[in-house]
Amino acid sequence: xxxxxxxxxxxxxxxxxEGWGGAGAYSDGKxxxxxxxxxxxxxxxxxxxxxxxxREVDEKYRAFGAPDRVYGADERAVAQIARRAFAAxxxxxxxxxxxxxxxHLADITRRIRRALDGRIQIKLNTPVRHxxxxxxxxxxxxxxxxxxxxxxxxxxxxxxxxxxxxxEQAARLGLARVHNPVDxxxxxxxxxxxxxxxxxxxxxPKLIYYTREFDDKIRTFCFCPYGEVVTEQADEIIxxxxxxxxxxxxxxxxxxxxxxxxxxxxxxxPIRYGKYLASLANMLSGGVIVQRLGDLEAGRRSTPARIAxxxxxxxxxxxxxxxxxxILPYRYLSGIREMLHALDRLAPGVASRHTLLYGxxxxxxxxxxKLTPQLETEIEGLFxxxxxxxxxRGLVQASASGLIAARExxxxxxxxxxx
Length: 419
Hints:
FAD/NAD(P)-binding domain; single chain; about 425 residues; 21 strands; 2 domains; three-stranded antiparallel β-sheet; alpha+beta; globular
């Protein structure tokens, strides 16, 4: 077995998104243990089978060092939050989460790496240029340096930062694609005390809101209690994200608000659209823009002086004060403001004029291939898994998708029936 990794080994990485462990290695380390959150595997397999896979993946993470504590298991407390959310016109998705923490997740990734040493061949810093196919069957891959590797089976797991590469391969190979909604928005930062009643019980409240003016779907994503706002870079595009350490804390909590847009024909480049919006922020600021909610609502840009006298101390000091209205479409900003005020009814203080908004946050998993329940493409022997394939949105379901593909390949190698 050969594993080809585009980036460097974990301790030699210079990118948050590429290298051993992918985007997950330096993420907040949330293990989402509910089948209806973090991916679409229930579109391919029965609900109970996905539940069993999630349980198995969770056990493996715990074996490599994930903590025992989970959040969101107290059904009574979750039900109370859900009732309060409903009164604010928000829908809470009950979710059980095991929080690993950024620093501990890196340790787990190192242990997984050591466990594979000597068992499979690993080639780092080896980008794949093309997937090779003959007569609608996969025959191997060609890397950027022109080398060819033959194989009866290929699993494509490009990760979020290389989702566009997989779509290019799909177009070249004539594979059918289904476009997921584009997720674009901002990262919100408030004092941790404002959200503590929620994050203490569920850690990451998965909340959905539909705007009054446009009926757009907006969701919370990646809560980072007592965490930091960070940047990440892919293909020279700088976007914003967040993470929390298990042992090192700040006075703030941050989370993303993402607006989901399902484009219709003839538009078919959702990833390019997300990158374009992020590039506007980069052009205006050289990186990430930060703006106080009060300044946005007053129709003025934030300045260093206004940020400095605000009540929320930014955890991303490199963010440049500016005006997000020059970057995000009106309907996106209008919806984000609307949801912030809905959240304020659930957690007073969220819609304070001192609340900080960082832009732009984009999730590049906007397309997926037509796949079988075994996650095989229309090319025999070619499988596609994880966030980069557009079928998962988190560590646990991404890991579970790997199990699905691997077990199908093992079955075929052992002479099992091709289903």
